[in-house]
Every structure is written in structure tokens, then in C-alpha cells.
Design brief:
By secondary structure, the protein is an alpha/beta fold. It contains nine helices and eight strands. Helix 5 links the parallel strand 4 and strand 5. The longest helix is centred in the N-terminal third of the chain and has 23 residues. The structure holds pyridoxal-5'-phosphate. The site of pyridoxal-5'-phosphate has 14 residues, from strand 8 and helix 9.
């Protein structure tokens, strides 16, 4: 095992780097094949989800050409980002976010993909405005996380499709926030193709009033092919590149 920090003296040429390179290549091949199968000319953007894995892995991935990483807990993401400011990577926040963490997230995140309520929009707008005054940071890319659960069964977060329009309007009128589009997770036990077909319809409805909200962040290790087929512009892949996540208490 590598140390959990960012202090490994020899990170290149190590066994972990070789393992990541092999897994990354396999995932890239899957994305390529799915893009061809869907007759798409535009390949989706790959976000590598590094949650629970050490900062050293982010460094290894950056050396392999990865420019976008995803994290779902502020404390972990903030620590990694602070230790890796020399890297040219964008940090995407993809987890449930409490409003009181907006200030921290605005310090390092290029996007927040898990916006699910008006209070969070307001908190992010305020935090980004402060950060822009202090550091001149870029506008925050905003994705509305939409719930694809039709019944209460296996809820995996997100706003109901019916409130997506209101959230979009709120984001679009906030200075410092840029409405990109939607994010979703396929419900557990569902057919991912059906889930992502739904998402594609919700995206089309959103674009009637918000034509620039074209992003669709969908697709994880298990279901990236279905996501590519139904128009995902961003994929969030963790375990198939990094291996299984260490158990947490
Ligand atoms: C962990 C996570 C991912 C990555 O999932 P894998 O199955 O490890 O590829 C994607 N999206 C969200 C919202 C996540 O929390």
C-alpha cells in the first residue's frame, strides 16, 4: 500500500502508476467503443472519481493526462486540492453538499454537480461572489442533480424533475454561477438505459428555456455504456479506474 498522503518520493514508474495506467486505458477503450456504437462524433469528458483514494493517486492520474477529478466529501476534497495546487486538474464536487460547506467548496471546485435545492444555490452564489472578490476565481459550473427514482424505493439523491426549471432559473440569475446542465445517478436495481433515457428527456425539456444547459453528467463504472448511448457529455468513473474503495467507518 502507498501512504495516504501526497508525499511519496517516487510516484512515477511505481506499481500503482502502472495499475492505474492499465485500468484507465481499459476504460478509455470502453468509452471509445460506446461512442462509436452510439454514432456520436463527440466523446464525453471523463471525470475520474478519486474519493477515498489518496492524493498520490490524483498525482499519478494527472501524469497520465487526466485533467478532471471528482470528489464527494468536502473535507477530503479540500485537503487533496490544497496539497496538489501544482497540478493542472479541475475539481468537480459530486456529493451531497451542506450549505455551510459552500464557502470551502468555492475555494477549490470548478463545478458542483449535486445542486438539489434553492438554499444551496444561494449559498454557492454568496460563496463564489466572496471568492471572486478575493481571488478572481472563474464562475462556478453548476449542474442540477435530478432524481430518477419514480418511487421512494432506492433514493440516491437529487431534485425531483418537476423542480428542475425553478432551480435552473435561480442558478441562471445568480452572478458567478454558470448553468451547465444536469447530473444523475441511475437508481439501484433499475435498467440504466431507461433511467438515462428519462434523463435525456428531462434535459431536452430544460433546454427549451435554457438552451445553453447542454451538459448531461451521467454514467459510472457500471453503466457508462448506457450513459454514452443516451447522450452523456460527462462520465464520472471511480472504481473501474482506481479499484474498489477502501471501506470507511
Ligand atoms: C462514487 C460516485 C461515482 C463513481 O462511481 P463508480 O461506481 O466508482 O464508478 C459517480 N458519481 C457519484 C455521484 C458518486 O458518488
Amino acid at each position: 500500500m502507498t501512504s495516504p498522503g501526497n508525499d511519496e518520493a517516487r510516484w512515477d514508474g511505481d506499481a500503482r502508476a502502472a495499475e492505474l495506467a492499465g485500468r484507465l486505458l481499459a476504460v478509455r477503450h470502453r468509452i471509445e467503443a460506446a461512442t462509436v456504437a452510439a454514432a456520436r462524433s463527440d466523446a464525453p469528458r471523463l471525470i475520474v472519481v478519486t474519493k477515498f483514494h489518496p492524493a498520490g493517486d490524483v498525482r499519478r492520474l494527472a501524469a497520465l493526462g487526466i485533467t478532471d477529478v471528482g470528489e464527494n466529501r468536502d473535507q477530503e476534497a479540500a485537503a487533496k486540492a490544497a496539497g496538489l495546487t501544482d497540478l493542472d486538474v479541475r475539481w468537480h464536487f459530486i456529493g451531497q453538499l451542506q450549505s455551510n460547506k459552500a464557502k470551502s467548496v468555492a475555494n477549490y471546485a470548478s463545478s458542483v454537480q449535486s445542486i438539489d435545492r434553492p438554499q444551496l444555490v444561494d449559498a454557492l452564489a454568496k460563496a463564489v461572489a466572496r471568492e471572486q472578490d478575493a481571488t478572481g476565481r472563474a464562475d462556478l459550473d453548476c449542474f442540477i442533480q435530478v432524481s430518477l427514482d419514480n418511487d421512494a424505493g432506492a433514493h440516491r439523491g437529487g431534485a425531483a424533475p418537476a423542480v428542475v426549471g425553478d432551480l435552473a432559473a435561480r442558478i441562471e440569475t445568480a452572478a458567478g454561477l454558470r448553468l451547465c446542465g444536469l447530473m444523475a445517478v441511475a437508481p439501484l436495481g433499475s435498467d440504466p438505459e431507461e433511467a438515462f433515457a428519462d434523463l435525456s428527456r428531462i434535459s431536452a425539456a430544460l433546454r427549451v428555456d435554457h438552451p445553453s444547459a447542454t451538459a448531461i453528467s451521467a454514467g459510472m463504472s457500471q453503466d457508462l455504456e448506457a450513459a454514452v448511448k443516451f447522450g452523456a457529455t460527462h462520465l464520472r468513473i471511480g472504481s473501474d479506474i482506481l479499484g474498489s474503495r477502501p471501506a470507511v467507518g
